[in-house]
């Protein structure tokens, strides 16, 4: 059933009057009459809000610490797997809105490109299509159940918007998850073939060829197309040495606090493929929330005697701030950027740079795909390359072997994706999943593995494990509820 819902137009626009809005182009700085101005519009084709806080809080990377220095309703409600009532930055509603605003920018660019024609605009078309695909991909993986070919044609997805907004209220419907994936793949394949890196002044803020291949490796990983994952991952790494292209945590961990904080999300970091500037509070408050990463999780993932299959201590650096107030732990992944609302103002907006795609993730994607193809020698090469940049006292004589992986992960909680795995495959996949967990702690990425592998999570109030709440496989709450405004305008809500 079709519904009426405004996705792109903000409340401020609605209050300013429909006619005024419809008389203006979407980017009122200039007319969209050449490749340069369209490129300027495409700067807005990326989400400017972050999923980090609410996704991390929903995962098993968060526990109730009992007390907090800073409160946040979206984090608390996400931890409890409630429908989040907070609607501003760092909330599901905020991220939903920013994705559809980015999609609208991409669609306006595509419309302008259709009118211009000509081969000299193919690069802009490619960026717009891949950016549109990425936004829909993130939306469907947050606000729907994970892709499963057995149910994807029945599971509610999200509206896939391919036309510019020209009216205040327009009919939209939620496509199935299968249909959304089909349309994502269509946009991704066409867009990737058109992207031209030389058109970008600062490539790390745009979908370059490498970034688009990285996105494709994640897309096909979620879909279970292992050959495609390997193909696109290989395109990212080329024929060069893999380890030298990864983030070097051994060197990074030795930097001073202020430098480490800045360098983690620097556009100069070779392992980063795509960065997004996001309106978010994470750089200032993330470690101070009541519901989040704590000493118990730090010990389990980073400090216990059994933290990895290579048997060496991690090079990751975690620090405690004001340890007597709510067990705050940080990895200094976020550098705060403050934008004043006026020249002499003391208030303003908090921003942080978010690494959307990295070579480190691509490597872990390829390890999974190699495992599923039973190409264990190549999977081991990637695993050891990863360890070489993330463990202390590493040397090649300590490289892990297939039997090390199988033995180490034998007693881990089984993963239950939509496809079958034998014992050895499962061990290698489990390795990739656990390496991804520690690599992206405090970045929200763990939630997507929780969904696609049906990982069962237990959350409970501080000190009261008997009051536990269990998130089971295919739990309806794994699909974050769509915004209340969307439901009010008729969009079908996720079942509860």
UniProtKB/TrEMBL annotation:
* Database matches in SUPFAM superfamilies: TPR-like (SSF48452)
Database matches in Gene3D superfamilies = 1.25.40.390
Residue stretches making up the SusD-like N-terminal domain:
20-221
Gene Ontology terms: cellular component: cell outer membrane
Q: Which InterPro entries does the record match to this protein? A: SusD-like_N, TPR-like_helical_dom_sf
Annotated protein name in UniProt: SusD-like N-terminal domain-containing protein
Organism lineage reads as: Bacteria, Pseudomonadati, Bacteroidota, Bacteroidia, Bacteroidales
């Amino acid at each position: 059933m079709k519904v009426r819902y405004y996705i792109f137009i903000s409340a401020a626009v609605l209050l300013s009057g429909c006619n005024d809005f419809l008389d203006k182009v979407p980017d009122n700085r200039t007319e969209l009459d050449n490749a340069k101005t369209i490129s300027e519009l495409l700067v807005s084709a990326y989400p400017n809000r972050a999923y980090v806080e609410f996704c991390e809080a929903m995962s098993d990377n968060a526990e109730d610490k009992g007390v907090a220095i800073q409160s946040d309703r979206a984090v608390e409600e996400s931890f409890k797997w409630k429908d989040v009532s907070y609607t501003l930055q760092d909330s599901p509603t905020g991220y939903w809105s920013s994705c559809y605003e980015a999609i609208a920018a991409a669609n306006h660019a595509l419309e302008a490109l259709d009118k211009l024609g000509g081969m000299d605009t193919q690069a802009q078309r490619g960026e717009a299509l891949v950016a549109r695909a990425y936004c829909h991909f993130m939306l469907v993986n947050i606000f729907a159940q994970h892709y499963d070919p057995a149910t994807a044609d029945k599971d509610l997805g999200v509206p896939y918007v391919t036309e510019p907004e020209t009216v205040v209220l327009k009919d939209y419907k939620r496509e199935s998850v299968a249909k959304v994936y089909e349309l994502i793949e269509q946009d991704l394949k066409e867009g990737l073939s058109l992207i031209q890196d030389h058109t970008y002044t600062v490539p790390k803020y745009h979908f370059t060829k490498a970034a688009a291949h990285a996105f494709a490796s994640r897309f096909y990983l979620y879909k279970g197309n292992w050959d495609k994952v390997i193909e696109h991952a290989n395109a990212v790494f080329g024929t060069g040495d893999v380890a030298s292209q990864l983030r070097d945590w051994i060197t990074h961990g030795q930097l001073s606090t202020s430098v480490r904080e800045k360098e983690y999300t620097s556009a100069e970091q070779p392992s980063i493929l795509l960065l997004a500037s996001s309106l978010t509070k994470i750089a200032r408050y993330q470690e101070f929330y009541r519901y989040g990463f704590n000493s118990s999780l730090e010990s389990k993932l980073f400090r216990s005697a059994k933290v990895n299959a290579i048997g060496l201590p991690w090079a990751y650096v975690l620090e405690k701030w004001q340890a007597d107030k709510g067990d705050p732990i940080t990895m200094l992944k976020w550098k705060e950027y403050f934008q004043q609302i006026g020249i002499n103002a003391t208030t303003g907006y908090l921003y942080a740079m978010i690494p959307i795609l990295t070579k480190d993730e691509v490597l872990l994607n390829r390890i999974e795909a190699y495992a599923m193809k039973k190409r264990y020698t190549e999977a081991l090469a990637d695993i050891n390359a990863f360890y070489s940049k993330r463990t202390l006292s590493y040397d090649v004589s300590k490289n892990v072997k297939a039997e090390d992986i199988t033995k180490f992960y034998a007693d881990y909680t089984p993963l239950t994706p939509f496809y079958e795995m034998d014992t050895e495959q499962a061990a290698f996949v489990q390795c990739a999943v656990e390496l991804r967990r520690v690599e992206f702690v405090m970045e929200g990425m763990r939630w997507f593995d929780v969904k696609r592998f049906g990982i069962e999570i237990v959350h409970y109030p501080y000190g009261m494990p008997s009051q536990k709440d269990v998130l089971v496989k295919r739990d309806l709450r794994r699909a974050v509820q769509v915004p209340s405004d969307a439901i009010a305008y008729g969009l079908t809500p996720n079942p509860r």
